[in-house]
Amino acid sequence: MPSSEIHQTDRLHGLDALRGTALLLGVVLHASMSYFPVTIWIVPDTDNSPVASVIFFAIHLFRMTAFFLIAGLFAHMMLDRRGFLGFIKDRGMRIAGPLATFWFPVLAAIIAGLVWMAAIRNGGTIPTDGPPPPPLTLETFPLTHLWFLWVLLILYVAMLILRAPFAMADRDGGWGRFVDRITGALIGPWTPALMAAPLAVAFWLTPNWTPFFGIPTPDTGLVPNATALTAFGTAFGLGFLLDRRRDLLVRIERLWPVFTVVALGVGTAALVMVGGPVPELAPVADPELKAPLAAVMALAVFASTFAVLSLALRFASGYSAVRRYLADSSYWVYIVHLPLVMVGQILVVNETWPWFVKFGAVIGGTMAISLLTYELLVRHSFVGGWLNGRRVPWRRQREAEFAAAE
């Protein structure tokens, strides 16, 4: 019997765990960038390996599309429970608020890391002849790794606007039943291909598209690129519809062998097509090559997304105190991790250790500091209530864990 049928609770522990994992994998993703066999990062290390680029590629394929799909499902759940005004209040506090609060300190810390690395390269002194920073405009605004909060806000607004006329017209539930039937038809072994179709077109239409990086990260500019909006918007929209049809999660769960095999096969093909473990980072210019690359990369994105979604539903739907703690902490960890990753990479850049030792040290140090600050400064304080929607009192932590399992 599928685990999602055994654990019928309002809290979808498997999806909660996957959402947290997607954020925590950001630490691994950014840590790996120093150890690529080609330079792509502001802290390049001479000790490197093609394995690091494979790790990056595998994580980058599914991480944020899976996150936005789950975000869409939880958005519908919250809107249904709290209503229009309650939804806006909660998202304003827990999404817009952290973005406004943490953006500048995070950016300042990243700039400090850049200056530190420049000084190392300059023999210990800060260079004074560097180019001036670009002017701050709508196109150059540096959202840093907090871009996902901005995109979430855009998708929330779009969702509320698009939903409004249907909600007003659907007095007898006819529209809702029609949409639910459409959603049911979308879910099956064919789902990754259906979801990949608009993304493949977006890839093909993207000028100067670098296939290895797949979806261009919308971390610069307040208007996200069309490819990212296509990928994350369709994932968010499907997640929104899936919350109306929770029964379809069981269907997705049962397809985990199919989704996993397809993801491994298509993901491997995509890696080979973009140059293998030592990637080719030049934009693809040949239209005859670009079309199949776009199709395979788009299918790899959504096949891997549905593979991890089905695996989470199959194997993580039960309550786990460890998984719940990490899911709760993941928001804070992701907000603070990038400057910590940069510091770790800089501290070990001149060491003679093997690349994987440095890689592990950067991840371990970042996670240790992030989780320690979460436990001491966030989880049991008003900040925990702000970010996670609840504050866990020190003396009642065990009781809270048992309550969360119910």
TrEMBL record:
Chain ranges passing through the membrane: 21-43, 55-79, 100-120, 140-162, 182-205, 225-243, 255-274, 294-319, 331-349, 355-377
Signal peptide (residue range): none
Record-annotated Acyltransferase domain positions: 13-374
Protein's UniProt keywords contain Membrane: yes
Record's keyword annotation contains Transmembrane helix: yes
Keywords: Membrane, Transmembrane, Transmembrane helix
InterPro entries: Acyl_transf_3_dom, Glucan_succinyl_AcylTrfase
PANTHER family recorded: BLR4337 PROTEIN (PTHR36927), MDO-LIKE PROTEIN (PTHR36927:SF1)
Name assigned to this protein: Acyltransferase 3 domain-containing protein
Organism: Brevundimonas denitrificans
